[in-house]
């Protein structure tokens, strides 16, 4: 089960090796995620980091290192997208690869 915690307007999804979520569209696993809420909590931007490289999750040590990399990227993405939530008029989901590129 994914652990959740809220810090200010951000709800973090703290994934562990046993709680990864498979994403069929990207044929990968969510390793880091957060929801950045608008000031009134009505809408949010869901930011997800997905790993598609099976070698990055082949064993526990690799998986833990990949999750750590995903969390570092997630923090950077939260900083980047946090200011845009003031203008939301609907929920938005953004999915990124471990390389920081947005999936289409």
Helix content: 10-25%
Describe the global form: globular
Helical/strand content category:
alpha+beta
- Give helix and strand order, one letter per element, not per position: EEEEEHE
- Rg of Cα set: 13 Å
Strand content: 35-45%
Q: What count of helical segments does DSSP give?
A: 1
Question: Can you summarize the main beta sheet?
Answer: 6 strands, mixed
Mean pLDDT across all amino acids: 94
Q: What is the straight-line distance between the termini?
A: 27 Å
- Topology, number of strands: 6
Uncertain regions spanning at least 5 consecutive residues: none
**Overall number of domains:** 1
Fold and architecture overview:
The chain is α+β, with helices and mostly antiparallel strands and 104 residues long. It has one domain (3-97). 21% of the residues lie in helices and 36% in strands. The chain has one helix and six strands, in the order E-E-E-E-E-H-E. Strands 1, 2, 3, 4, 5 and 6 form a six-stranded mixed β-sheet that branches. Strand 5, helix 1 and strand 6 form a beta-alpha-beta unit. The longest helix is centred in the C-terminal third of the chain and has 22 residues, at 60-81. The protein is globular, with a radius of gyration of 13 Å. 26% of the residues are buried. The model has no long low-confidence stretch (mean pLDDT 94).
Give me some keywords for this one:
104 residues, six-stranded mixed β-sheet, alpha+beta, globular
